[in-house]
Amino acid sequence: MVKAPQYSQFEYTDRDTLAGRLMRRYWHPVYLSRELESGRAKPLRVMGENFAIYRSETGVPRITAERCPHRGAGLSLGTVEDDCLRCRYHGWKFAPSGECVDQPIERKSFAHKVRIDTYPCEDYLGLVWMYLGEGEPPPMPRWRRLEGDLPRFAVSDFRRFNYFHDLENVIDDAHQRHVHRDSIYQDSEYADEMPLLTAHETSYGIEHNSTFSNGDKRALLYIAPNCVYFRTSASRLRGCDGLLWQVPVDDFHHRIFFVVTAVEDEAQRLLGAMRDRLKSNGPAKPQTPAHEIIDSIVSGRMRFEDIEPRSDRLFIEDGAVLTSQGVIPDRSLDRLGASDAAVSLLRKIWSREMRALDLGEPLREYSWPDDVRPT
Ligand code: FES
Ligand SMILES: [Fe+2]
């Protein structure tokens, strides 16, 4: 008997995989806007594919295939000229449309017969966004509440394991009081209580609720396919809106993008104070890279309690637990309970959508309605 496909390989996102095809139906943040200076090209790797990303001299972000069609040099080594990118190896020049417009060493140019792939991209909320799927891109998701001239931080971090168990971690509210008990949960009013954890599917993904005995409710919002929207609860930075994405670099690495915006007055005061404190501290002092601390914890040379106070402490705490699960964990061995409601639902939704994609059936059209708020 032929075994039915399980549709559980969420981790593999190369272009020809089911999860990869699903992910390529959406826009993704791929770079911090402030780290892409005008007139510079840089290498970019997303879902196992290599690209060149550059900002034109007039400030417009552009993304092209990395391979130069002449003899394969990396276009990210190239030179930005106005809105075009010129290969460093023999000087072929490509317009934003992908057309080759100059072959300086060819006596008889055949530039009009050569082109490279280019990809839709734009700056939004301090991040460069990209669509790397087939055909016309869907509308870019917008968070109007977070737009405008509000105090905002956008950060990114490179992680040395698969993106999917990081995504599961972010929608798992139960882990907070254990993993972060020495940091944000130390002084949380909810530190001693385990709330009722529930999850249900919505038009944008999943609403994951934590309900406390006094009736208080926290709602984390998973926005398909790889974003979580939440209210920050750390005492030093309470009441901001946070958006967090896990974007695969390849099957063994991913990059997180985190945007925190102070929408309300009190949060604006806290975020403003934090920014002033960082400014008055001067340039950041060199510190041990987060991945080295994670390795020290996972290998038993260091304890969670030994992490010095630092702005990325939360990421280190999560990173240690996620690293211990493996680069690509075998989730068929998991024993899920009722408190894993959101994780179970996430897996169920992904399996269902991958199956539909495989069988050519209609997929669920998730879209962010922008009138829903996390609490
Ligand atoms: S490899 Fe790019 S111009 Fe030769
Ligand atoms: Fe966490």
Overview of the structural elements:
Its EC number is 1.14.12.-. One of its GO terms (molecular function) is iron ion binding. There is one protein chain. The chain has seven helices and 18 strands. It has helices at residues 18-23, 163-170, 176-179, 265-280, 290-298, 313-325, 341-359; strands spanning 28-32, 41-46, 49-55, 61-65, 79-81, 84-86, 93-94, 100-102, 118-119, 121-124, 127-130, 152-159, 196-201, 205-211, 217-223, 227-231, 241-250, 253-261. The chain has a seven-stranded antiparallel beta sheet with strand order 12-18-17-16-15-14-13. Strands 2-3-4-9 form a four-stranded antiparallel beta sheet, with no helix packed on it. The longest helix is centred in the last third of the chain and has 19 residues, at 341-359. The mean pLDDT is 91. Residues 68, 70-71, 73, 87, 89-92 line the site of FE2/S2 (inorganic) cluster.
Order of helices and strands: HEEEEEEEEEEEEHHEEEEEEHHHH
**Mean of pLDDT:** 91
Which regions contain 5 or more consecutive residues with pLDDT less than 50? Answer: none
How much of the sequence lies in strands comes to 25-35%
CATH topology of the largest domain: Naphthalene 1,2-dioxygenase Alpha Subunit, Chain A, domain 1
